[in-house]
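#structure-requests
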Amino acid sequence: MCDRESPAAPETDESERVSRFFSDRARVAAILLVAITLVKGLLFASLVPAWEAPDEQKYFAEVSRLADRGELRSLTGHPLLYSVAAYLPYKLGGKSESNRVLAVRLLSVLFTAVTVLFTYKVARTVFPENEFIQVLAPAVATFNPQFTFIGASVNSDSMIAMWFSVIAYLSVLVMRDSLDFKKGIAILALSIAGALTKQRIYALYPIVLAVMGYGLVRRSKASWSNFWEGAIKLRDVALAATFVGVIFASWPIFTGLAVGASLNGFPLLRLLDITYILGGENALMSVAPRMFFHFWGYFGWLTIPMTPWFYQVYGILSALSALGLLLSILRSLARLLAERFKNQARARMGTYAAQLVFLVCSVLISFYAVLAYNVLLSGGAQGRYLFIAIAPIATLFAAGLAWILPRGWRRPALPVLILTLALLNSGALLYVISPYYY
């Protein structure tokens, strides 16, 4: 009788695994949000006419030159990894230019979906017990109208956002678990892929280096002397080599700062003049409002704004999130000063604080880089330039809203917030973008 019943055990185990999988509501919600990202990305890609997104025609021309003539040449001033990746979709689009544009746009949609997935992973790693943040963070990313618009166009912004979302996930893992060889190699490879996609990632290299350094120190039990004593081990040498590899990949930045050189016309040494960047002409006070509008939705070639009430809703949500972040920081400091954390809680608090510092610094550095670009080169204050850090931005945005709400309100508030964001996103397509073109 035992022999007859034993084959049923694997089936039971499998059903239990499936049951556990679907009982994890945050994971199921994240999968649904990724699926929604693909569907609405297809709608945006299909409805928006060609060449109506920034630099789309130039990017498509790069892909066309590569696919039709075998010529690899930058027309946008950016590296060419995106155009190389778009080679196959372009070919699969057949001979019709409109089909080819759609095929390459769908590649961007795929990159956007991956970014949404890793936004969830970042939120889950930093806030493992907070379902509200785990679900709301990817929702904030996917239902951002401007991110949807740019992520459904022929533009490398979707690819660079994807690379850094994965780097952000690996970084918070490193701060939780310490650095190992696989994570180190992955961060190095992704950093190089980012550099081959868009120079914008250079601004985030210092924090990537800081994460790897933190991981090495944590691996050696917070002692440099212990690390050097164990450095004869092959795996530790390999880890040190990956650390040096990221430094090597960053070398153009560091040498440029040292000699006052420029990168694509960008005067690197002036980046250190913080007073000038923040207070100069066309600096913080004039740039920040424009970046806010362009971050949430300013379509076409920055010629199609949303109606004012869209920005008012996003402004209210942003203000509440910022207030929630501030209150949480003050509460945590008060508890820390009052020594209300036990030893185990203090250890967790250290990891948690390091992860939050990484997320905040990613956002601030990205913002400062855009500000510097605008001040030093009059490059414009397009909010899409912040999408490289969309995973940290969305995670902090969700965390701020969680912390401003009383605990008992979070569960009923979550579907309301997601529905609100979804309606704003669909409203941008139906009542702003479509009427403009059709």
